[in-house]
């Protein structure tokens, strides 16, 4: 009787364990399924539609011809203009990423290390530009960098130049504005990475006779590279996909993939070509993310 009672208890415990696992699985599925549905509706489905659209053909007067052809891709890679557009896009991302990191690195490192009671206020000031629309900041830079803008007027009044410099409606002005607009993102990304740097390693290097410059170059900088790579990736992606700033501050003279997608879709009504350019831009993102993952594994390993 005792053995049967024990077996009954074991069976009951196993049944309860199975039921608990099933409830856990159902709870997990209940949490995951809405996210999967949202991802499918908001990303995967539009991505499929975009890829399918890129395989169609553009007829006379913007007529859409259903098909399965690579004509739009061939047209893109056979036209030197689009190679220039791709080059401009990559160059803009590299320039914005590089200068955003160089300018944001000291700020992020200071905000990570400071023990001031005003640290929260300083952090808020660093990311405060994000509270302002990129459109508003772009118009602000148009006023600053124009031929009659604040910068040119100041340089002329101080006698440093005799005629206004071209700081707007070109690649230079667009890059300057985007660097300032995207710097808060770089600061946030690097702050999250710098928090893992151990100060004790720097103190140990200093106690062994290393100068502050050597400590920075051989300890601080290598340990902060994952945060730097994250910041660069974020700024690069935001720069190459930016539309408002290149469109307004570029004055129609800065051609990148985002602006060309808009032009092809709304002006020439060539939706297949616009979709093909979007797919090419997405491929660039994928290659960059894959490169980022390999770099992170290398430096963290």
Automatic annotation (TrEMBL):
Residues 86-292 form the ABC transmembrane type-1 domain. The keyword Transport applies. It comes from the Bacteria. GO terms for biological process: transmembrane transport. It is found in: Cell membrane. It is a multi-pass membrane protein. Gene3D superfamilies: MetI-like (1.10.3720.10). InterPro entries: MetI-like, MetI-like_sf. Keywords: Cell membrane, Membrane, Transmembrane, Transmembrane helix, Transport. The chain crosses the membrane at residues 26-51, 90-111, 123-144, 171-194, 215-240, 271-292. The keyword Coiled coil does not apply. Belongs to the binding-protein-dependent transport system permease family. CysTW subfamily. This is ABC transporter permease.
